[in-house]
Amino acid sequence: MDATDRYSRQILYPEIGPDGQRRLGAARVAVVGLGALGCPAAALLARAGVGRLDVVDRDLVERSNLQRQTLYTDADAAAGRPKAEAAARALSEANPDVEIVPHLRDLSAADADAVLDGADAIVDGTDNFDVRFLLNDWAVKHDVPWVYAAAVGASGLTMPVIPGRTACLRCLFEEPPPAGSAETCDTAGVLGPVTTVVGALAALETLKLLAGREDAVRRGLLQLDLWHNDLRPVAVEGPREGCPCCGRREFPFLARGRGGTASSLCGRDAVSVRPAGDGAFDLAATRDRLQRAYRVVDVGSILRFDVDGLRVTLFADGRAIVHGTTDEARARAVYARTVGS
Amino acid sequence: MDLNVTVNDERRALPAGTTVSDLLALLDLRVDLVAVERNGEIVPKARHAETPLREGDRLEVVTFVGGG
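^ Those are the sequences you sent over. The predicted structure of the assembly is below.
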């Protein structure tokens, strides 16, 4: 092997070796969500020489992304470029040998097959529970490994899922929590080094899977609170007996319309967003969280706040109207990262 | 008599008869945001109320994270 070769240092690492590198070059990975987790994960996988990378995102680059979303430039934010497009360009510049396929879309049950079919592994770079349960159902149904990754504040959580052999997301967390119940990066803040660590861990487990080294893949969860120097592995023995997903093979999140709905309001520059599930929505708790980051106008049973040039009106049942756009994906994206879904 | 258990690497003395549900209430955690592992096995939510903790149990309570 030539020491000047692009992948020489990785091939020198004996657990990868020339054989592992060949496997990487023949593999296809989908990175779903190109925020602060998806950026480092996609960058590392592209640089590692994965054969094909499908990069998926529904949102536009904004100034408030740049502190941690490492694939984007100030010019991307100024132009409001779609993340999938800006990421594809940055990744191609980093490694032109990788086939990068951008998908500018809001991944849903209806188009999961079109985006994910053929993937050897899926990396979770999303920012909401709905898509993660969709990914888990899809991956278990089609027997494709995926890596759950999430972060908020200085905390992170990640777990590789090898269907049938390790626990899946629903073995642990049976249902997505109700909309508005968990912290989001828009309300609790988030640190770039933390998301980069979690995204890199997801990329590493993916490399092990693609290199044919399932034996080396971490079993169970890794919980991190990096501000407080706390890294805690939570070993989870194989699939949980009675798990609705990997045990009983029920895939409710693949039913169309399950992931919440967004519909453009005819004749108005606005989109109505309805969260998934029927969990009780807590408007007061959501207001308290939103107030940390936004000026929230509380009109009794309705909250109103502005974000990135859009105005969000939030109702007591969790439904919202996002004014200032007719783009349903953008409205859902704003909902997911402010209210949380 | 007290019950000695370890929760997230921290030793705790709890009243005898404490269940997984009681523990979550004590920690002020919402059941729909956590997964509970007891001695290496996940305790399904439907069994939280009927699962008493036993002397020497090791528990991990993991809070679901959705951001990214």
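The first strand of chain A starts at residue 28 and ends at 32. The radius of gyration of chain A is 20 Å.

Shout if you want it in another format.
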